[in-house]
């Protein structure tokens, strides 16, 4: 009986991350932590939302006691919006963030980002999408120009690998065999990062730009 091989897939998820207004000055060190945690910053923008835009973004929390304070806080100054990508991006980013209440996070998850940068339950420094579905909605909200294509499977995945991955990997392995470095794994990893033909660009936009 012939064994059925699983269809190849490209496991890359995207999630939305927000650096909230009160910790925008920590942008550089937070981004460094994000990159060291295995994420790619696919898109990035700095913007300031109006209270109405914040209300629309947090529409699922409308009617809760803290909602007016939340929209006032989120519209109080510029914020940084980023699209992060990696395997299991949504769940891994939530894990790095820790509990939504920063006071609780300092007790239970002292090394989480909200424990380090947050103040209390409302001012918890950073936002992360709760699910793949909410990530798609929130990314479209902050980056309306982004096209979110479905993750390739089957023949589309094979075509993608043949077109974009294998040629670069072959070139890297060829360069590795010529160079013969002492630490081939690290050398190849650095080479692939430097020669990635699809390397995402971090987009910077004006602080005063408003989301439409």
UniProtKB/TrEMBL annotation:
Domain annotation Nucleoside diphosphate kinase-like: ranges: 12-150
Record flagged with keyword Phosphoprotein: no
Compartments where located: Cytoplasm, Cytoskeleton, Flagellum axoneme
Broad class of where this protein is predominantly found: cytoplasm
Hydrolase in keyword set: yes
GO molecular function: hydrolase activity; nucleoside diphosphate kinase activity
Region forming the signal peptide: none
Domain of life according to the entry: Eukaryota
Keywords: Cell projection, Cilium, Cytoplasm, Cytoskeleton, Developmental protein, Differentiation, Flagellum, Hydrolase, Kinase, Spermatogenesis, Transferase
GO biological processes: cilium movement; CTP biosynthetic process; GTP biosynthetic process; negative regulation of oxidative stress-induced intrinsic apoptotic signaling pathway; spermatid development; UTP biosynthetic process
GO cellular component assignments: cilium
Quaternary assembly: Component of the axonemal radial spoke complex 1 (RS1), at least composed of spoke head proteins RSPH1, RSPH3, RSPH9 and the cilia-specific component RSPH4A or sperm-specific component RSPH6A, spoke stalk proteins RSPH14, DNAJB13, DYDC1, ROPN1L and NME5, and the anchor protein IQUB. Interacts with IQUB.
Family affiliation: Belongs to the NDK family.
Record's protein name: Nucleoside diphosphate kinase homolog 5
Species: Nyctibius bracteatus
């Amino acid at each position: 009986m012939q064994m059925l091989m699983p269809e190849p897939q490209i496991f890359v998820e995207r999630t939305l991350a927000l650096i909230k207004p009160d910790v925008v000055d920590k942008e550089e060190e937070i981004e460094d932590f994000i990159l060291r945690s295995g994420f790619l910053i696919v898109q990035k923008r700095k913007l300031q939302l109006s209270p109405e835009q914040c209300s629309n973004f947090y529409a699922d929390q409308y009617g809760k006691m803290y909602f007016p304070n939340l929209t006032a806080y989120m519209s109080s100054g510029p914020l940084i919006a980023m699209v992060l990508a990696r395997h299991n991006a949504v769940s891994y980013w939530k894990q790095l963030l820790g509990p939504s209440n920063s006071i609780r996070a300092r007790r239970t998850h002292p090394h989480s980002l909200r424990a380090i940068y947050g103040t209390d339950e409302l001012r918890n420094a950073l936002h992360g999408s709760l699910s793949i579905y909410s990530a798609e909605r929130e990314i479209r909200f902050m980056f309306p120009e982004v096209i979110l294509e479905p993750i390739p499977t089957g023949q589309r995945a094979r075509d993608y690998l043949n077109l974009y991955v294998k040629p670069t990997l072959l070139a890297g392995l060829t360069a590795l065999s010529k160079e013969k470095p002492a630490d081939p794994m690290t050398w190849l990893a650095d080479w692939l990062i430097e020669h990635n033909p699809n390397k995402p660009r971090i987009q910077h936009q004006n602080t005063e730009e408003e989301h439409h």
